[in-house]
Specification:
The model is unreliable at 120-126 (pLDDT under 50). The chain has helices at 2-25, 27-61, 67-84, 88-98, 100-115. The protein is 63% helix and 0% strand. Helix 3 runs antiparallel to helix 4 and helix 4 (88-98) packs across helix 5. The longest helix has 35 residues, at 27-61. By secondary structure, the chain is mainly alpha-helical.
Length: 164
């Protein structure tokens, strides 16, 4: 429901802001600013996306879990989508998600939210698979090795052709 409300409210707010800016500086200048804004956003996303990808690869090369890098990369993607969407409000939100200082702050908030428990962004419900284990949890497991048969029984998937 919240997501649906967002898809209704954001365009209305964007239209109102664009109308106000257009009244203040004129329609041609408003369109020009929105166009230039989208171009600058695309260049910024390309640069920051490359940096996020490089940080991800560096973390993997060092054998470190790239959780923060994944969060920052996702924020660059979301910010990029917001930056190329026409509008001033979405551009501000997109800049916050793309620029490194604010992106680090947002990634920290995402990380804290993920640690506090299961998160379902769309439904707002708990994860149906159960609670997320805390860091440092110890599990008692048994490893079982399964070897394929040389001759599978008739009528099984290991046999060529349709089952009888």
């Amino acid at each position: 429901m919240r997501l649906l409300l967002l898809f209704i409210v954001v365009p209305i707010v964007e239209l109102a802001v664009i109308g106000r800016v257009s009244d203040a500086i004129g329609f041609p200048w408003t369109v020009a600013i929105l166009f230039i804004d989208s171009l600058i956003g695309a260049v910024l996303v390309k640069r920051e996306g490359r940096r996020a990808w490089d940080a991800f690869r560096t973390a993997l090369a060092k054998g470190r879990w790239p959780g923060d890098e994944v969060a920052q990369g996702a924020l660059v993607l979301v910010g990029g989508a917001l930056l190329v969407t026409p509008g001033f409000v979405t551009d501000l939100a997109g800049l916050a998600a793309v620029l490194p200082p604010t992106r680090r702050l947002l990634a920290g908030q995402v990380r804290r939210r993920m640690r506090s428990g299961p998160v379902s962004v769309l439904a707002g419900a708990a994860d149906p698979r159960g609670p997320v284990p805390e860091e440092g949890s110890v599990y008692d497991v048994e490893v079982v090795s399964v070897e394929p048969d040389d001759h599978p029984p008739p009528g099984t998937a290991g046999e060529l052709g349709p089952p009888e």
